[in-house]
Design a protein that fits this description.
Two copies of one chain form a homodimer.
Chain A: H1 17-33, H2 39-45, H3 52-64, E1 68-69, E2 78-79, H4 81-91, H5 99-108, H6 115-130, E3 133-137, E4 148-155, E5 158-166, E6 169-176, H7 183-197, H8 202-216, H9 222-239, E7 244-247, H10 261-272, H11 274-286, E8 291-294, E9 306-315, E10 318-328, H12 333-351
Antiparallel strand pairs in A: 1-2, 3-7, 3-10, 4-5, 5-6, 8-9, 9-10
Helix pairs in contact in A: 1-3, 1-4, 2-3, 6-12, 7-9, 8-9
Chain A binds a DNA duplex through helix 3.
DNA sequence: CTTTAGCACTCCTCGCACCCGAGTGCTAAC
DNA sequence: GTTAGCACTCGGGTGCGAGGAGTGCTAAAG
């Protein structure tokens, strides 16, 4: 399940049992109440029978290694990005999800709705349950397979193309043509295309079309050529439909560290400027299992103080998209991770054709 | 153009020429730099050759009338909601739009895109140009007329219904049926419906269907009954499609008075919780011309420190939806109003069928 | 009667000094 | 290796005072 948590490998320095334990305690404490945690607190917190002074020595080592840092001379310590990484990768003990929560997720994602709706529901659910901002990419059509194509005449030079991708997903687009086509002609086109390509992957269909068109245009009769040309345009539109859904941004404002208005501003600008976040999400598509980006690791400074926890969701083993949450670095990973994981699996199940 | 600015009538007390002028100057000044403005400043600002003392007397009257208020004893004055209202209704001199801006709007809303896209572009444009949050309701279909209907079989019990509303707008939905239908049957249904209802308003079609079904069910043959039933379900879906698009929320954070994180929080929660804002927008639909809600006037306390400037956009005289911006009460009305007005008109033009 | 000047008063803002507490690092003793 | 003790640092809160902006009132001037 957490197969790829350790993506950002680094020479993990050998840490004593104790040091690890203290880092874990420190991080958990910091996640809990957001205050830099000092040696005295830590001594009390961790069940260890050690004096603050001893703790200080260990913590000093951790600081040396860049795992924790203090905001100013006489404050407690706070995990650094590396600290979080280590914490998440090796120290974290994820809680199993309560049944109640699982049931809620399954209930809400159980209804037969179209896939777009399901995906949006998933985003809202994530945001509700985690109190962070939930986000989900909309299924990419590249890997979906084409069930059939239909063309309807709209007006003189406009044709409505309908792409049936699955029982629950349909897409249409309007084509502006250079001449008028009769209903009969259009019927021929779609019959032809359906015979040739029904059931194939959209991406493959498109490639075939392009190459066939280029290579053997002269060998095709006029009708086929037109049909393919039209299909090509439809598929082109269909492919660039990748986008994402975001819910519950307001939750982000509950966190002190994001209360800085300029930080929030950058964040919301990033949301409006979808490209950047999409890029990030794209990176998560390949890997399976939960992925975590901590702070600057994302490579986008606008997400500096945020972490991203994502998991891909699939149909028939094909990754359709990614879902997850975005929140302050200091989020309750042990809780968020299983939630994201479960949601991804339940959404996958809901999207799988079963009737 | 500004036909309905004076919606919130109130017994406007007779104000001397001078008092009006000073209220205008004060409001403009306050809008410019957000600081309470004092008598000295006002004396300099307003070209009048009056001493601060005189100004103070006049301002004291304005305060008496509830048009301005001072945040604390020895600060300058700030317009109240009533003050803004008066300002907007009777004192404001709207700037004509520069040609460059008009051109930009027309250029961006000129492309042939489908209506949904146009509407989203309008929202982004508004937000870009005004540096406020732009928002636009998605065209309501109730008043749109139906060009035709098509049904396609998807699988055993699923049918794809396609609603052609105009050359540029198509909507589809998937119907789960209780038995299988052949392509031929579906063809019959759509032919029947198209003959009966093509060109009628969706709303009207639906009403007709419902009443005919109820009254004369026994007189209809089975085929027609089924066809009507199906159409009813499609139209029902089509009608509830009202929603809105929002762009540029990040802009809101540029304003000091909204930097209060809790205020922002309420605002963003309102955006997520679409209903409230939709209600507000609905109120704007009936009236023609630019509408302005100032602060608490909206009736939603979450918009307390915000104003809403909206204008409906139309096709063939039918109001399709509303567009506008939301921003702090202290916004540059004289600039925003013509922009919203122009955008509404340009969007209307772009949506009007012309080919 | 309107306008103005003068003046006392209020209240916000800012800088300053201050102290307190939390926490550290170091050293020396256990 | 662990602990106690101690000096030191720094941030945050508090209290005080000066400065400034602005008001309201009154009385005199136009």
């Amino acid at each position: 399940m957490l197969s790829s948590l350790c993506k950002h490998e680094m020479p993990v320095p050998e840490l004593s049992e104790r040091a690890q334990y203290l880092l874990k305690a420190l991080t958990e404490r910091y996640i809990r109440d957001g205050q830099p945690v000092g040696s005295r607190t830590l001594a009390r917190e961790a069940g260890l029978k050690l004096s603050p002074a001893t703790i200080r020595n260990v913590i000093a080592d951790l600081e040396e290694l860049g795992l924790v840092t203090s905001p100013h001379t006489s404050a407690g310590r706070v995990p650094t990005v590396q600290g979080y990484r280590l914490f998440v990768d090796t120290l974290l003990s994820v809680q199993p999800l309560e049944h109640a929560l699982l049931d809620e997720l399954e209930l809400n994602l159980g209804a037969e709705a179209d896939s777009r709706e399901l995906v949006e529901t998933a985003s809202s659910l994530l945001s509700d349950v985690t109190r962070l901002a939930g986000l989900v990419t909309i299924p990419r059509r590249e890997h979906a397979s084409l069930q059939r194509v239909e063309f309807l005449p709209l007006s003189e030079h406009k044709i409505l193309a309908i792409l049936v991708i699955s029982d629950t997903e349909v897409q249409n687009c309007i084509l502006n043509m250079d001449r008028a086509y009769s209903a009969a002609e259009l019927q021929q086109f779609s019959t032809f295309l359906n015979e040739q390509f029904a059931g194939k992957e959209i991406h493959a269909v498109r490639n075939t079309l392009v190459s066939e068109l280029r290579e053997t245009r002269e060998n095709l009769n006029r009708m086929m050529a037109t049909a393919m040309d039209m299909a090509d345009r439809v598929l082109g539109e269909a492919e660039q439909g990748s986008d994402y859904v975001l819910a519950g941004q307001a939750n982000l404002m509950e966190f002190n560290e994001l209360c800085n208005v300029t930080t929030l501003r950058h964040l919301f600008e990033a949301f409006n400027e979808k490209r950047q976040i999409l890029n990030l999400l794209d990176q998560c598509v390949e890997s399976e299992g939960v992925q975590i980006f901590i702070g600057e690791e994302s490579g986008y400074q606008m997400l500096d103080e945020c972490s991203l926890v994502t998991a891909p969701y699939t149909v028939d083993g094909q990754v359709l998209g990614v879902l997850g949450v975005i929140g302050p670095t200091r989020m309750a990973y042990e809780r968020v991770i299983p939630i994201v994981d479960a949601t991804a699996r339940i959404l996958s199940a809901a999207l799988n054709p079963h009737d």
